[in-house]
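Q: Hi! First time doing this. I have a protein sequence and I read that you can turn it into a structure. Is that right? Here it is:
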Amino acid sequence: MQSFDYRSPTTTADALQAVAQEDARYIAGGQTLLQSMKLGLIAPSALVDLAAVAGLSGIRREGEAVIIGAGTTHAAVAASPEVQQAIPALAALANQIGDRQVRHRGTLGGSLANNDPAACYPAAVLGLGATVQTNRRKIAADDFFLGVYTTALEEGELITAVSFPVPAKAGWQKFKQPASRFALVGVFVSQGHAGVRVAVTGAGSGGVFRASTLEQKLAASWSAAALAGASVPADDLVSDLHGSAAYRAALIPELAARAVG
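A: Yes, that's right. Below is the predicted 3D structure, encoded as structure tokens:
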């Protein structure tokens, strides 16, 4: 691995200043960043460790929303009584990410900033209509995910928390790629103040996306039966050695129906 500077700020202001130098990168759990460095895909001049930055982790209920700090680990989300009570589907999703090591090191903010096309959290954020909060602004889920490994974050911008609205109903189903445990297809569904939302990860050639056809059917009737015979176009879906676009297209309505229960 190449050489680099290491910095461990304790405040957001110090973190922002530290990352301002050329080619510096934030590191949270490091589950993706360190692997990319080992493979020689990126070579940052410095790593700015967010682990000690005050206020970046924690979970709290505020009215009809659950606020989760960007530095909160997957394991903490899965074990949170607040999340389990308000959005059990989100706790279930967090508990299915990777393995125990990944869940205890990986963080919500790191996953969203990376925006892997097969990651689980983007489906929950988009499927619940959550709001990503940064040191500069609030970004609606529909505006945050711009493509594979691409988000609306600007240079040096830091995710500080995510506000998840508490839905009336929600569900999550994931068809795992057995080696990586990423989603071959994952579907998050919700019914709330903003209506019905269906978000799909692992299948789209452009990353996470909303399945509008399925949303319309569930808006008419929130039931698995409403999705009987439903289809999703395979044109913009991924084909790889794990599954064809047609296979993924067939999985999406099936997993949505199971998520509705």
